[in-house]
């Protein structure tokens, strides 16, 4: 029995699957991750600022025009479409097998694929708010504002994306929901994440169910606790898994 057969067997036996994912879930949709060879931490080495620095609260407040230049150019991908992993996870939820997708991603692709319970640990590019009056803006509205720093037409305040920057806390309600879902899960699928960004990555330690599978191209710190490791592209793995789970199609 190969690894995908084993995974398919576990999925069939499970009722409360939780998927915990990161940027690697969306690389096949054309959105670069941070730490792969083609990731932003490697390709941006000639830039005067490191991505972690630009994506910090203090940098945002001090140099919003540099932040928005990087953010618009590197972090916004409005043309990206969900891939096989996003689609299968939505299908498993619709079939009553998957409780939630817990993601560090900010791209909204899980919702676009049809997932309903998506716990976005780091927020979303689709939610933006005026820092002064609190008015809400969609991604489309933010994209339509081509000035160096997007500003609220009502009060002139800076429109900040509701993404969690370095130095900012995670939303307490989202964290508590993630801990609860992971604690009650029977199968934990970890995919497309280096598991290095804290406190998000530490949440997987709350799992006390039967099986953990890590679907990631590179090794992660949680591999020693995994019952199954598949170091291949998550989209291909999910396609193979879907073919095993729904063979008639
Ligand atoms: P990361 O860049 O640290 O790690 C990504 C991991 O995914 C790597 O270990 C890589 O080997 C693996 N990977 C890449 N492509 C893969 C594929 N096709 N199949 C399987 N594995 C693949 O990303 P992270 O752990 O999510 O942490 C980075 C932070 O950056 C997160 O906080 C996230 O919010 C943010 N981020 C988000 C996006 C997005 O929303 N799509 C993109 C870049 C960064």
From TrEMBL:
<dbReference type="InterPro" id="IPR003000">
    <property type="entry name" value="Sirtuin"/>
</dbReference>
<feature type="binding site">
    <location>
        <position position="23"/>
    </location>
    <ligand>
        <name>NAD(+)</name>
    </ligand>
</feature>
<keyword id="KW-0963">Cytoplasm</keyword>
<comment type="function">
    <text>NAD-dependent protein deacetylase which modulates the activities of several enzymes which are inactive in their acetylated form.</text>
</comment>
<feature type="binding site">
    <location>
        <position position="34"/>
    </location>
    <ligand>
        <name>nicotinamide</name>
    </ligand>
</feature>
<feature type="binding site">
    <location>
        <position position="35"/>
    </location>
    <ligand>
        <name>NAD(+)</name>
    </ligand>
</feature>
<feature type="binding site">
    <location>
        <position position="194"/>
    </location>
    <ligand>
        <name>NAD(+)</name>
    </ligand>
</feature>
<feature type="binding site">
    <location>
        <position position="104"/>
    </location>
    <ligand>
        <name>NAD(+)</name>
    </ligand>
</feature>
<dbReference type="GO" id="GO:0005737">
    <property type="term" value="C:cytoplasm"/>
</dbReference>
<feature type="binding site">
    <location>
        <position position="34"/>
    </location>
    <ligand>
        <name>NAD(+)</name>
    </ligand>
</feature>
<feature type="binding site">
    <location>
        <position position="130"/>
    </location>
    <ligand>
        <name>Zn(2+)</name>
    </ligand>
</feature>
<feature type="active site" description="Proton acceptor">
    <location>
        <position position="122"/>
    </location>
</feature>
<keyword id="KW-0862">Zinc</keyword>
<feature type="binding site">
    <location>
        <position position="107"/>
    </location>
    <ligand>
        <name>NAD(+)</name>
    </ligand>
</feature>
<dbReference type="GO" id="GO:0017136">
    <property type="term" value="F:histone deacetylase activity, NAD-dependent"/>
</dbReference>
<dbReference type="InterPro" id="IPR029035">
    <property type="entry name" value="DHS-like_NAD/FAD-binding_dom"/>
</dbReference>
<feature type="domain" description="Deacetylase sirtuin-type">
    <location>
        <begin position="1"/>
        <end position="249"/>
    </location>
</feature>
<dbReference type="InterPro" id="IPR026590">
    <property type="entry name" value="Ssirtuin_cat_dom"/>
</dbReference>
<keyword id="KW-0808">Transferase</keyword>
<feature type="binding site">
    <location>
        <position position="122"/>
    </location>
    <ligand>
        <name>NAD(+)</name>
    </ligand>
</feature>
<dbReference type="Pfam" id="PF02146">
    <property type="entry name" value="SIR2"/>
</dbReference>
<feature type="binding site">
    <location>
        <position position="152"/>
    </location>
    <ligand>
        <name>Zn(2+)</name>
    </ligand>
</feature>
<feature type="binding site">
    <location>
        <position position="106"/>
    </location>
    <ligand>
        <name>nicotinamide</name>
    </ligand>
</feature>
<dbReference type="GO" id="GO:0070403">
    <property type="term" value="F:NAD+ binding"/>
</dbReference>
<feature type="binding site">
    <location>
        <position position="234"/>
    </location>
    <ligand>
        <name>NAD(+)</name>
    </ligand>
</feature>
<feature type="binding site">
    <location>
        <position position="193"/>
    </location>
    <ligand>
        <name>NAD(+)</name>
    </ligand>
</feature>
<feature type="binding site">
    <location>
        <position position="133"/>
    </location>
    <ligand>
        <name>Zn(2+)</name>
    </ligand>
</feature>
<protein>
    <recommendedName>
        <fullName>NAD-dependent protein deacetylase</fullName>
        <ecNumber>2.3.1.286</ecNumber>
    </recommendedName>
</protein>
<feature type="binding site">
    <location>
        <position position="27"/>
    </location>
    <ligand>
        <name>NAD(+)</name>
    </ligand>
</feature>
<keyword id="KW-0479">Metal-binding</keyword>
<dbReference type="GO" id="GO:0008270">
    <property type="term" value="F:zinc ion binding"/>
</dbReference>
<dbReference type="InterPro" id="IPR050134">
    <property type="entry name" value="NAD-dep_sirtuin_deacylases"/>
</dbReference>
<feature type="binding site">
    <location>
        <position position="106"/>
    </location>
    <ligand>
        <name>NAD(+)</name>
    </ligand>
</feature>
<keyword id="KW-0520">NAD</keyword>
<feature type="binding site">
    <location>
        <position position="155"/>
    </location>
    <ligand>
        <name>Zn(2+)</name>
    </ligand>
</feature>
<comment type="similarity">
    <text>Belongs to the sirtuin family. Class U subfamily.</text>
</comment>
<dbReference type="InterPro" id="IPR026591">
    <property type="entry name" value="Sirtuin_cat_small_dom_sf"/>
</dbReference>
<dbReference type="InterPro" id="IPR028628">
    <property type="entry name" value="Sirtuin_class_U"/>
</dbReference>
<feature type="binding site">
    <location>
        <position position="216"/>
    </location>
    <ligand>
        <name>NAD(+)</name>
    </ligand>
</feature>
<feature type="binding site">
    <location>
        <position position="107"/>
    </location>
    <ligand>
        <name>nicotinamide</name>
    </ligand>
</feature>
């Amino acid at each position: 029995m190969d690894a995908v057969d084993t995974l398919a067997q576990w999925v069939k036996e499970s009722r409360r699957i939780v998927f915990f994912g990161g940027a690697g879930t969306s690389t096949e949709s054309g959105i670069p991750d941070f730490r792969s060879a083609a990731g932003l931490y490697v390709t941006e080495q000639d830039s005067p600022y490191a991505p972690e620095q630009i994506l910090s609260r203090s940098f945002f407040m001090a140099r919003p025009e540099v932040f928005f230049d990087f953010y618009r150019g590197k972090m916004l991908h409005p043309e990206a479409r969900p891939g096989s992993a996003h689609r299968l996870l939505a299908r498993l939820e619709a079939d009553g097998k998957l409780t939630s997708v817990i993601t560090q991603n900010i791209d909204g692709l899980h919702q676009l694929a049809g997932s309903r319970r998506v716990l976005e640990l780091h927020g979303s590019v689709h939610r933006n708010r005026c820092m002064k009056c609190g008015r809400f803006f969609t991604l489309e509205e933010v994209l339509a504002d081509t000035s160096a720093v997007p500003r609220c037409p009502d009060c002139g305040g800076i429109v900040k994306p509701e993404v969690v920057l370095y130095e900012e806390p995670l939303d307490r309600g989202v964290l508590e929901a993630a801990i609860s879902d992971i604690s009650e899960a029977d199968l934990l699928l970890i995919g497309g994440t280096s598991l290095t960004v804290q406190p998000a990555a530490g949440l997987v330690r709350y799992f006390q169910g039967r099986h953990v599978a890590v679907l990631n191209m590179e090794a992660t710190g949680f591999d020693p606790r995994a019952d199954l490791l598949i170091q291949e592209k998550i989209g291909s793995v999910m396609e193979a898994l879907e073919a095993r789970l729904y063979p008639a199609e």
